[in-house]
Specification:
CATH class of the largest domain: Mainly Alpha
Bound molecules: flavin-adenine dinucleotide
Strand content: 15-25%
Helix content: 40-55%
CATH topology of the largest domain: Butyryl-CoA Dehydrogenase, subunit A, domain 3
Distance between the termini: 50 Å
Shape: globular
Number of helices: 11
Largest sheet: 8 strands, mixed
Order of helices and strands: HHHHHEEEEEEEEHEEHHHHH
CATH superfamily of the largest domain: Butyryl-CoA Dehydrogenase, subunit A, domain 3
Mean pLDDT: 97
Radius of gyration: 21 Å
Amino acid sequence: MLEAVRRLVDEVVLPSVERWDRDDELPDEVLKRLAELGVPGALVPEQYGGRALPVSAMVDVWRTLAQGWISLTGAVNTTALATELLVRYGTETQRERWLPGIATGEVWSSFSITEPGAGSDLSRIETWVEPAEEGLLVTGRKRWIAGGFSFPLAFMLATVKGQLRPSCILLPSEGRGSATWTVEPLDKLGYRGVESAAWVFDAHHAPGGEVLGGEAGMGQGARQMLDVLAVGRVNVACRGLGVIDRALKCALDEATERGIGRGTLLGDHSHTQLRIGELRGRQLVVEAAIRAAAEAVDRGGEDAAARATAAKIMASESAVWAVELASRLAASRSYTGDTELARLRRDAPQTQIGEGANDALLIAAGKAVIKERKASR
Ligand SMILES: Cc1cc2nc3c(=O)[nH]c(=O)nc-3n(C[C@H](O)[C@H](O)[C@H](O)COP(=O)(O)OP(=O)(O)OC[C@H]3O[C@@H](n4cnc5c(N)ncnc54)[C@H](O)[C@@H]3O)c2cc1C
């Protein structure tokens, strides 16, 4: 899979990515090829027809995709999260219904938590559902749904009427685009090509809509969806690492090709060497953090969530920093719209926000450590 992905990135993605970015278009053939290679459904267990790859095996695949375009790593992420939700919390009927299609690449899934008034703070979720004939009646608004126009399935956080806490709702796409379920595109600075949708439900009748895990999953949606976000944070961290890889490549191109002064190259000067040394160090440290986080997720370690969060924060902050550093070396060559560094400047901040805004994650991590310390006194 990794070899095939590498070829796809070198031969198809890199020659076209600036055009796709400009046109805000991720071609269907590329998604189809990723599905054929088994990338979106890679985590599906063997008994449902999948390859049962561990998250640690996906790190190089997600990173390689991001070296081509972070939008590719993002596009396959939510289907991996859907897989994890079904495996960890689905009923057997739900697993049998959806996992085989995810394994073959026929079913891609969205993962929808965010609302116009609720990002990090899930106590503000206002979308709600109530039982209806063979499904659910849905009312509310969701935002930033990857695959929100075309993926046939979504896992969506919403409160079942009469419950205090939200549940994770399995929502097939029948009726999407109708008057009761409208879909609008969101225009984005970067991370283009990925469908990012805003949904409005007005007493929408969703046949086949149900609570993940049935009765046992009622009111458990926030816990379930946050739990699998450890996988999503490894994915976002890989996006950041892919950006760092490309920023370092751009910096090295400048260092070894651009003449400065008489008979010297930019890379012969110590300030360039210093910057490239910093970039290389950060690349290695971020890579190590991501591998450690992925291994913790695979072994179900208690440290998995904290490590995945830390890796995502380090990778994303380093990605933004790396692009800035490489752009200083490239100067005006980073500023015309068709350059890779110009695109990376727009793409990199997505990794600071996706799967949780970094500042909000840091506040939560700090709170947890202080609480631990108080409890140990
Ligand atoms: C390109 C893109 C794609 C996305 N795709 C998806 C998707 O597929 N599915 C999905 O569900 N979501 C998606 N999102 C949404 C993303 O997960 C949210 O934007 C993210 O969780 C942050 O939420 P927010 O933007 O509402 O900001 P918030 O988290 O609400 O943060 C706003 C501000 O409040 C601060 N803050 C937050 N919590 C606290 C606190 N406790 N104390 C003090 N200050 C605090 C933050 O630091 C920040 O400054 C996507 C977003 C983007 C940009």
